[in-house]
Amino acid sequence: MSQENLIKLECTVCKKTNYYSQKNKKIIKERLQMKKYCRHCKKHTLHKETK
Question: CA-based, 20 to 30 A from 23: which of 2, 8, 29, 40?
Fold first, then answer.
């Protein structure tokens, strides 16, 4: 993965970074949000993109 397209996804419940992903920042301007499994909370929670 290239560094300029790399983003971190953070759990909104426990505030821990669980996933890394990539996106095209020229096309998608808003922050990414998706429901993913959090191994710390042990359930599916909303994960948001961090800086």
Answer: 40
Query: What is the DSSP annotation of the chain?
Result: --GGGEEEEEETTT--EEEEEE--TTT--SPPEEEEEETTTTEEEEEEEE-
- What are the backbone angles phi and psi of residue 7, rounded to the nearest 5°? -130, 155
CA gap 46, 1 in Å, rounded: 23
Q: What is the CATH number of the domain that holds 21?
A: 2.20.28.120
**Full residue range of the structural domain in which residue 25 is found:** 3-50
What pTM does this model have? 0.83
Give the C-alpha separation, 26 to 4, whole Å: 11
